Every structure is written in structure tokens, then in C-alpha cells.
Amino acid sequence: MDANMISLIVSLISGAVGGNVAGALNKAKGLGPVVNTILGLIGGGVGGQIGNNVDFISQLGQAGNAGASGLLGLLLPLIVGFIKNSMSK
Hints:
Elements: H1 3-25, H2 33-53, H3 55-60, H4 62-88
Helix pairs in contact: 1-2, 1-4, 2-4
């Protein structure tokens, strides 16, 4: 496996974990574990791509990239949950 594939896998896993942490933190506005995981995967993938293209994060290496991916994976379900609840009112 090449480094880019490993980086993508780590980003996706970090994002999925972040998405589920967001769901656990925001149970009242939660989207469910499946949706949180999917949104986390999307956020992690996007975060990983951003991390690979931003010098500061790429200089931190794999840990920085995983952190950025996990953070975006955590934020995406929170944002979508907020929008969903705002629209339902």
C-alpha cells in the first residue's frame, strides 16, 4: 500500500470516529449512528484531502492529518444536525 492510500484510510477512520463522537455529544439533535458515520467519513475524506494540500498540516505528518480529518468529521454531523433541527421548527 502506498502512503496516499494509508493516509486516506486514516483520514476516513478519523472522520468516522469524529462523526460518532459528535453524535454522542449531541444526542438531542443526533442524526443516528449510520448518518453520523457517513457524514464523518465524508468529513474525514475532505479533511484528509485538505490536510494533504495545506503545508502546515502536511508538515505535522500523519498525526496532523488525522487530527484535521477527525475534527472535520466531528463538525459535519453537528452542522447538519443543527440545520435539520432549524428547518423543522
